[in-house]
Amino acid sequence: MFSICVLYSGVLFMVSLVFFISSLNLMILDYSIMLELDMLTLNSSSIMMTILLDWMSLLFMSFVLLISSMVILYSKEYMMGDLFLNRFIMLVMMFVISMMLLIISPNLISILLGWDGLGLVSYCLVIYYQNIKSYNAGMLTALTNRLGDVALLISIAWMMNYGSWNYVYYLDFMKNDSNMNLISYLVIFAAFTKSAQIPFSSWLPAAMAAPTPVSSLVHSSTLVTAGVYLLIRFNFSFTEEMMMFMLFFSSLTMFMAGLGANFEYDLKKIIALSTLSQLGLMMSILFLGSSKLAFFHLLTHALFKALLFMCAGSMIHNLMNCQDIRFMGGFMKQLPLTCSFFNISNLALCGLPFLSGFYSKDLILEVLSMNYVNMYMYIIFFISTGLTTFYTFRLLYYSIMGDFNFLSLSSIQDSGVVMLKGMSGLIFLVIFMGSMLNWLIFPVPYFICLPFYMKMMTLIVIMLGLWLGYQFSLFHMNYVNKSLLFNKFSYFCASMWNMPFISTVSMNYLPLYLSEVYYKSFDQGWYEYYGSQNIYYNLKSLSLFFRILFNNNLKIYLILLVFWVLILLVNLI
User: Is the dihedral of CA 65, 71, 77, 81 positive or negative?
Assistant: First the structure.
């Protein structure tokens, strides 16, 4: 039964290597391959199945397939007790295939197929553990993503003005056209729902109800990165006003997620908020005009985020499915290998030289420092970077250092050999792939020219974040229940600035209240009075009347006979 995992994992790994080598080949030759299959022509608009193979799509596909292969191998042991493991693996494979379709499509119709495939399969995976929390999370995820699907459908309808849905032909030279601007806004809206930017952020932590291997796949290279990838493809059509407007929202998302992760206690939600923060960073640098840098960070982030979730899954597995970081501690002694992987991934996330995250993150901050941006944007970028190290150190403090806070009688050890194999497949890439991609993606090196204090600013905020993370962890452990104001502030930050309430209660309350009014005034009011109850009462009163008639028919007949005789006598007189 379990061999299916190894089979799929091996196949995906081999295909990923083929795609990677093909990507290098196309990169060196500077080639792009476009395959078109005409499926239907309708009034000069032709529906084509188009496949775009260039270095970017092939490189991203190789990363998606590599991470998927490791996640499926990891699932072999993680989902061992599951009776329906085959169904789970098939769902994961459908998820990956939907992502492949989205990556290779320069056509909005086929993009919508992949886009909707991701939304549908993600719903099935989020509700995989069937309970009320999973159902609520799945519904929130599906409905938020449906908003983006609607925006894509409208943009498909609007692109009929051009006679084709192959958007790659129109991006650059139709940049100042009002139709193209509208389509770009709709695509940005769709990407914001899929990549959970403000105000659609609430579904991302809710989707943590899915099994951990799914979280690893979703947060590294598939669902949430689909929006960023689509915007990287569309970046040629963005106007300056559009980019400045969207930059504000993406930078705010980065700050909000970094702040919220410092007040969260659920291990998976902390890592989910970390993903949201990094998505905000990718979007921000994309709207600053560096699409290649956004793609570079997308790839490096995929590696260490997948490994981070795998390590978290191993810890949760050992703690009998407990996800609260307050129950963890002292894992360095009991899970040395998992903790080493966890540490390296976290340090790559912080941007420690010379791990993979450093090459993309440091370059992003230095390019931002060289650009002419306002003080607000400069400060929020560096504060968000500091918050990354802040919550990372807090996570390490609670999970790896200190005393073990779980059950006294417990057997926790690095026993999951298959899970460790899955994690080991990624650890070398987390360490070395950043520098390798740096050489591949940027054939001409960036020339960074900054004053000394601006050059050192990244290092300063990282060190400040580490120190504050340590102080905050101590403060949190000692004074968490002693200050009402601090508790309210921490609840506000952990609930993502009340965004889950805005996207659930605000959407549900008014329709439910209206339905109650309708129910009382119509179903139990006028409809009831003039409808079923009134008919019932009329029929009942009539039947009672007829019953009286039928029971006293002889008396009534005799009385009527007497009246008739009396009337005859009166007439005769």
Answer: negative
Output the six-digit token pair for 323: 């996800």
In the 8-state DSSP scheme, what is residue 53?
E
Nearest to 23 by CA among 33, 36, 13: 33
Q: Are 150 and 141 in contact, with CB atoms under 8 Å apart?
A: no
Task: Return d(Cα 535, Cα 541) in angstroms, integer.
Answer: 10
C-alpha–C-alpha distance, residues 364 and 373, integer Å: 13
Tell me how far apart the alpha carbons of residues 501 and 522 are, in angstroms, rounded to a whole number: 30
| 3-class DSSP string for 290-335 | CHHHHHHHHHHHHHHHHHHHHHHHHHHHHCCCCCEHHHCCCHHHHC
Helix (H, G, I), strand (E, B) or coil at 107: strand
- Tens digit of pLDDT for each residue in 209-227? 888 899 898 888 888 889 9
Token pair in block for residue 237: 């059509």
CB 84 within 8 A of CB 31: no
Rounded alpha-carbon distances, angstroms, from residue 548 to 181, 368, 555, 563, 564? 79, 94, 11, 20, 22
Whole-angstrom distance, CA of residue 345 vs CA of residue 417: 19
d(CA 38, CA 41): 8
φ, ψ for residue 210, nearest 5 deg? -70, 160
Strand partners, 35: 51
Provide the pLDDT for residue 63: 93
Q: Token digits for 62? A: 């190789």
pLDDT of residue 462: 86
CA 85 to CA 323: how far, in whole Å? 22
